[in-house]
Amino acid sequence: MMEAALGTLSLLIIVYLVSVTYTFPTETDSTSEPGTPPADYILEDYRGKGCLDETGFVYKLGEEFSPSQSSCPCVCTEDGPVCPNPECPRFSTSRCARIEHNGCCPECKEEHSMCEHGGVTYALLEEFQTSQCEHCRCESNGEVACVVADCPIPECVNPVYEPEQCCPICQHGANCFANTRIIPAGKKVRVDECTVCECPTQENWTQTDSQAECYNYGC
């Protein structure tokens, strides 16, 4: 009798110790270890489900993409990217100064000895004008680079364009408006018995502020 009671007591002590040292998880216990990301942020394995390019971007099955900048377009399949042979243009290597492989197909960079612009040919590094306002140059790569002249703001309210001039000029010199009247710059002009007007100085001249400064002497 005593032995049975001792055995029962020993079993209860063992069960108590096990329950203290280990807590069985429940369905409502969603606590995770510190530093463990939530399940929503764990990346899944994309093998057989998608394809990756060199930047890590994921493409769906059936999508067309380029694995890298210098590769040809591929189709994403369950077995990985399938890349058909492209139809690249043919060229004679004797015409190429160099061959570049920056894309799907190689590119032939021809050696240029001249430029063509407006039906006229020019030697490399030759400078020419297409108009009074446009200056051009034949670059070493066979392309023409042009720059349009930057005209200063005319210091008058009635500029004119001459056939041989690129920028507008002031035929009668600098001037400005005194109300609706045009007066010359550089001197004071009496516009009526009591009012004297003067154009702004050249340092203060702008097209949007072309009115004279007028003073009334209160007569």
Characterise this structure:
It holds the Pfam family VWC2L_2nd. The structure is a single chain. With 219 residues, this protein is mainly beta. The chain has three domains: 45-111, no CATH class; 114-148, Complement Module, domain 1, CATH 2.10.70; 152-219, no CATH class. It is built from one helix and 17 strands. The strands form seven sheets. The protein has a three-stranded antiparallel beta sheet, with no helix packed on it. Strands 10-11-12 form a three-stranded antiparallel beta sheet, with no helix packed on it. It is elongated and about 100 Å long. The relative contact order is 0.06.
Features:
219 residues; Complement Module, domain 1; secreted; 1 helix; repeat; 3 domains; disordered N terminus; mainly beta
Layout: helices, strands, pairs:
Layout: H1 2-21, E1 50-52, E2 58-60, E3 64-65, E4 74-77, E5 80-82, E6 96-100, E7 107-110, E8 114-117, E9 120-123, E10 127-129, E11 134-138, E12 144-148, E13 175-178, E14 181-184, E15 189-190, E16 195-198, E17 213-216
Antiparallel strand pairs: 1-2, 3-4, 4-5, 6-7, 8-9, 10-11, 11-12, 13-14, 15-16, 16-17
